[in-house]
Amino acid sequence: MAKAPSSSAAVAAEGRGLAHHRTRLLLLLLVAVAASASTVGFLLRGALRDPCDAHGDHASVAAASGSPLEFMRSKLVLLVSHELSLSGGPLLLMELTFLLRHVGSQVVWITNQRSEETNDVTYSLEHKMLNHGVQVLPARGQEAVDTARKADLVILNTAVAGKWLDPVLKNHVPEVLPKILWWIHEMRGHYFKLEYVKHLPFVAGAMIDSHTTAEYWKSRTSDRLKIQMPQTYIVHLGNSKELMEVAEDGVARRVLREHIRESLGVRSEDLLFAIINSVSRGKGQDLFLQAFYQSLQLIKQQKLKVPTMHAIVVGSDMNAQTKFETQLRDFVVKNGIHDRVHFVNKTLAVAPYLAAIDVLVQNSQARGECFGRITIEAMAFKLPVLGTAAGGTTEIVVDGSTGLLHPAGKEGVAPLAKNIVRLASRAEQRASMGKKGYDRVKERFMEHHMAERIAAVLKEVLRKSRQHTRS
């Protein structure tokens, strides 16, 4: 039988454990404090992996053995993004960049559209890539052409990136097309321009984030542009390991919840409904606030006893001084709910806010989100989701099980208001939906699921490219 530790040893061990946990909580609090700084927020999401550094970290590559992407070791991959910013498309491509670096791929990054002015965000993101061994090239020039010709794989990110092909590659376009994987995220009609996608039928494949988006692209390109989509691969996204670690740490969630709520002036017993997206009409913050106001009216009319409710809009940017954001704030003041609605600057450190809220609202309008990463991130935190019945959200949220869906557009305001009241008055249903959402994430929306799906696509594209070269 093992000898029981002495009391002094036990106390020492307990002290070390408490010190370690306090250190971890302190770091998490620093994350929360930094959540309003977008660039810092990005460094906390995806950067905590251990990819190769600029000099080639062989220990890191060895640690990646067993990764489904291991076959990409030493492959030269050129990534072409239409821009480099804190928006979904570029950040998804950066996430793939670090997955590839982690297994030892040679990765080169090109940003096609760059602002003429000095941009702190672009500067920070480029240096993050450089620090992880990614070569960053100018969009135009002989080096870009040579890299495209030598690369084993070229990934164009978003439809707009198609504008890079002709001006840069010129007469080399036919040579490069057979090894291009086109990663498409858009659901807006203005992306369907022939100048953007005329080469789409001739690439090795198109990778799209949801079945809904893929079907939309197939019908629109065929009907409007009279071109056919290439082989299309559906790759649902997954949550990062870092986010899952926070989501599954009960103590961390509690600390973050308390910190954010205190900063907002929201009590622990209050209910907090959040919309976490960059503020724009397409994301539906205006309709969400209308529905939130209506829900308060319904509760008053029906004399329901529910906790005090608050709404939080994460993704604000008053520096931009957009007419839309001004309208949002005017609506709040006009209807006397300024003490119930909170605006937070845009950030990529979403974990503190997911820990702090009770329900996520995904209110993207028109055709909805291509996928909507924030939806699976919320489900990882065991949050029910109130989403529009459009786009990729319908492939994530199971209506009536992991959340509730409502129509997009103005006709969705009243149903959303009723769904807000429904969840506000049913704590058991919130908990049940949150648990089912978490189970669904563990089943299909983890980082390793995404890596496996992307690996299958890359293998097929490489096979096609080699086959074309031999023929």
TrEMBL record:
It comes from the Eukaryota. InterPro entries: Glyco_trans_1 (IPR001296), Glyco_trans_4_5 (IPR041693). SUPFAM superfamilies: UDP-Glycosyltransferase/glycogen phosphorylase. GO terms for molecular function: glycosyltransferase activity. Residues 258-439 form the Glycosyl transferase family domain. Keywords: Glycosyltransferase, Membrane, Transferase, Transmembrane, Transmembrane helix. The chain crosses the membrane at residues 25-44. This is Glycosyl transferase family 1 domain-containing protein.
